[in-house]
Amino acid sequence: MKLGAIFDMDGTLVDTEKYYTRAWVETADDFGLERNPDLGHLCMGGSPTANRWVIHKIFPTVDQNAYFDHTIARVKKWSEEELSLMSGVREVLDHFKANGVKMAVASSSNLETIEKNLTRVGIIDYFDVLVSGQQFDHSKPMPDIFIFAAGRLNVNPRDCYVFEDSFNGVKAGHSAGCETIMIVDQVKPSEEIRALASGVFDSFDEFLRAER
Q1: How far, in whole angstroms, is CA 201 from its chain's centroid?
Q2: Which terminus of the chain is more exposed, N or C, with fewer CB under 10 A?
Q3: Termini Cα distance of the chain
Q4: Catalytic positions, written as ranges
Q5: Among the residues of the chain, which ranges form H helices?
């Protein structure tokens, strides 16, 4: 077992990635644009800066900041109405806590959102460290956020798990030298991602069965 575990939040710990995937697409209605069904997947795991660039590429005439803000407002509204844990999350957190594994969250969301969501679902006290991707110039798939989180845990990245649901997150965890586990949510892993990940599981329940 590793000494540290670093978790993405959206679509990994809390079931919000479905909101983002839907909101990126539906926000086109607010601007009189034709919906692009791929936008949600293109933005998955990206930083605000990276996602604004994607918006500009898909909709070059739209105000990318306004589109981004409308999308985030949608997700915030839906998250406040209903927010739940992904399957097996509390069990895996209890397992690591019982075995003395230090734990961190490393998410592209801002720190306020991380704290609110983890508090809302009752798991914030499991974590020693919370890290927002907005603290860094380089977002996932660059490894900066995971290297930093491991440092805050005082654990070598090679002694850490990274749990992710996005392609960019898996690439970042692998580049950081962590044992990167993909927990599948909105997108199925490609062959490239399967090669980079140390394991691919449909849920934390499945990961725990393999771990034990």
Answers
A1: 15
A2: C
A3: 10
A4: 8
A5: 17-26, 39-43, 48-58, 64-81, 89-98, 111-120, 144-153, 167-176, 191-196, 204-211
Amino acid at 192: E
pLDDT digits over 109-153, tens only? 999 999 999 999 999 999 999 999 988 888 889 999 999 999 999
Q: Report DSSP state, residue 22.
A: H
Question: 154's torsion region: left (phi>0), alpha (psi -120 to 50) or beta?
Answer: left
Distance between CA 60 and CA 57 in Å, rounded? 6
List helix spans (H) across 99-166: 111-120, 144-153
Q: What is the pLDDT of residues 145-197, one digit of tens each?
A: 999 999 999 999 999 999 999 999 999 999 999 999 999 998 899 999 999 99
- Report the distance separating Cα 139 and Cα 134, nearest Å: 8
User: What is the DSSP secondary structure assignment for residue 23, as one 8-state letter?
Assistant: H
| pTM summary value | 0.90
- Taking only Cα atoms into account, the Rg of the chain, rounded to an integer number of angstroms, comes to 17
CA distance 159 to 144: 16
Residues 137 and 142: their CA atoms lie apart, in Å, by 10
Asked if 185 and 21 touch (Cβ cutoff 8 Å), the reply is no
Please state, as a whole number, how many other Cβ atoms lie within 10 Å of the Cβ of residue 159. 17
